Amino acid sequence: MGTQNPSAPARAQSRIAGNNHPHRRPRTGSGSGSGSGSGGLEHDHTRHTTRFTVIGNHLAQHPELSLLAIGLGAHIQSLPKGARVDIKTLAARFPEGPTRIAAALRELEAHGYLRRVRERIPGGRIVTRTISCNQPGRQADHGDAPVPVRPAHPAPKKRAPRKPLPAVPQPAFLSPTLLQTATDLLADLRRHDPRLLLSACDTSHLAPGVAAWLERDVNPTAVRHALTADLPPESLRRPAALLAHRLTAQLPPPPPFGAATRPPAIQHPLQNCDGCDRAFRAPEPGRCRDCRTRCPSPR
Predict the structure, then answer these.
(1) Domain segments of the chain: what residues?
(2) Using CB atoms within 10 A of its CB, is residue 216 exposed (0-12), middle (13-18) or buried (19+)?
(3) What's the predicted TM-score (pTM) here?
(4) Angstrom distance (rounded) from CA 275 to CA 288
(5) Segment 152-172, tens digit of pLDDT
(6) Using an 8 Å Cβ cutoff, are 227 and 246 in contact?
């Protein structure tokens, strides 16, 4: 009695209509057999022409993302621009709760598939802008790709505190007249060099230093020359600091004390001599010196 070979087909197999698609991939499977009992994955693909999204295998087969994160990432990439992808909206769309949705979003953000940027919109309200990246780590090469947007009203940058001006000499006695002369001299410096235009605060700081020069018998012209001569040709970053340095470094010494002078001679009033009626100077009336010599007064 003849026994049929079980591994050889009894008759020629006809092609299944569904397997005749021109873009069908060849079947792959594991094991020694190639039939339906091999247990491997098979694809029955049809080319999409409308309503499809290209998802990279780096997302679909990501070795570290959870299945929920992979599915949520694919869903977000399929949504149109402007769709809401906040936790509340996604939790209402899928059976997973807000806690699992939030965890999946954090996974996608940690691996670069999502970026969330907080920005202030006109009116002062702060919103969160979600940016989906279909290829993390690579910049978009077309104009419609989402890119980070600067806040509509960025916070003003804080300026570094201004460095204080160097100290200036102080006069022994600052009279209002001397201070006004010093202030006028500083305000006039810009006529000699436009770079020496000083603020009111800088002028108030420098005025006592100029007064200390004037107090030492230095005339205003000499003070002005000391402050404006041999300035550097480049722009002056802090003109007031330069003037403060010159007022201190070039301060002249006090003037020398004058030599002691003899007191003026006492000039007595004119008197008429009682003997010769000649005029002479004496503290009181009497005889002149000649008459006193010729006729000494009796004892």
Answers:
(1) 57-132, 176-229+238-249
(2) middle
(3) 0.37
(4) 8
(5) 455 566 677 778 999 999 998
(6) yes
